[in-house]
Amino acid sequence: MSGLVCPICGTSGRVDESLRCQSCGTCWEFGEDRRLRAASESTVCPCGTRNPPTRPDCEGCGRVLQERCPLCGSLHPLGRRVCPRLGQALPRRGPARSLLALAGVLLVALATWTFAKPPVGVPGSGPRLDVVFVLDATGSMGDEIDAVKQHLRAMIARIQAGSPAPRVRFGLVAYRDHGDEFLTRVFELSDDPGRVEAAVRRLEADGGGDTPEAVAEALHAAIHQVGWDPDRATSRMLFLIGDAAPHQDLGLDFRAQVRAARARGIQVHALGCSGIQDSGEAEFREVADLGEGRFEFLTYRQEVVRADGSAGHVLYQGGTAYEASDADASWRRGASRLMREGKARAMSTSSAGPVPAASAGLENNLDSVLTESVMDEARKMGVSY
Q: How far apart are CA 141 and CA 143, in angstroms?
């Protein structure tokens, strides 16, 4: 624009239509005194969010910050009486325009409120929970690891579907045994579902081969290396998941680790997988007792063929077999609960029972047990599902 002098470099006639000096590159605007001044490169909302100059509303709270200028067509901060680009006084608003502006503000506020609830799987602003899985990753745990891989996304979605949506972070400590490829492998707590899922998918069952495993070392890593939230208002849950007893003649003592967890406000649960009843059940029950948590056997389901040729389902829990009366998803609540509800009966070991169907694999309810346990804790903190 001819006649305009850049206040920085003093060059005349080198300020273009966007009020940028072609000599020094400085951007300018007209102030209320109709003099050039340096233009702000961003708009700061009262909520503290710094927004780009091309955005009419706040990225943080949705508040309307700028309006379209009737003279130059650009966005200017609300309340301007002078066009910062042309230096000309803006026409006064009539009642109709004021009402339209108010309607626009209300629409933005309504949209902000409507979409305030986070989508499923995204951490919300409700109660905070830190959840860490301490998972045996030896060769016998393939089915359980696969269950977590297959259902983790759905688990997170169910937990986050509460009202108010809880803010849940998940972490993982995988453990094997002394002499294996690794003793422990730590994935720190994160509220990013994709990051958590990627960590689980990298996990494979391998190693082991003998009964005791590095449980104490895994508990130690889970207590000290995952980055627990120090806020006392955050609920902290640790789930020990395995099928073998801890070493008691090497290094760390698992009981001391559980006591250390409780001293930090971490509640410790223990989930016994298939085979735990042969070696490790007593220790896992002690872990849950010392950790003020709960011990629970996982339930496994297998399709079978009865003597009369009909199809059925057998549930295995803690070394006992149960025949289920139906094939719905209620088995995921556990065989012992179905027994109490009259939907399953213990099978006699003396009589010939049904035989597994061709290519019938074992399913387990690890994902359901973990999900329901976290949801129960969230309910205690005021979340409804």
A: 6
CB 158 within 8 A of CB 375: yes
Q: How far apart are CA 356 and CA 362, in angstroms?
A: 10
Cis peptide before 118 (omega within 30 of 0): no
- Give the integer Cα–Cα distance in Å for 115 and 140: 45
What is the token pair recorded at 255?
A: 């009981």
| Beta strands at 320-324 and 344-346: parallel, antiparallel or unpaired | antiparallel
Backbone φ, ψ for residue 171 (5° rounding): -135, 165
Res 306: pLDDT: 77
| CATH architecture designation of domain 128-298+365-380 | 3-Layer(aba) Sandwich (3.40)
Tell me, yes or no, if the pTM score tops 0.70: no
Tens of pLDDT, residue by residue over 72-115, are 777 767 766 677 666 677 776 554 444 554 455 445 444 444 44
* Spatial contact of 354 and 311, defined as CB atoms under 8 Å apart: no
- Distance of alpha carbon 205 from alpha carbon 368, whole angstroms: 21
Give the start-to-end residue ranges of the domains of the chain: 40-114, 128-298+365-380
Taking the CB of residue 195, how many other CB atoms lie within 10 A of it? 12
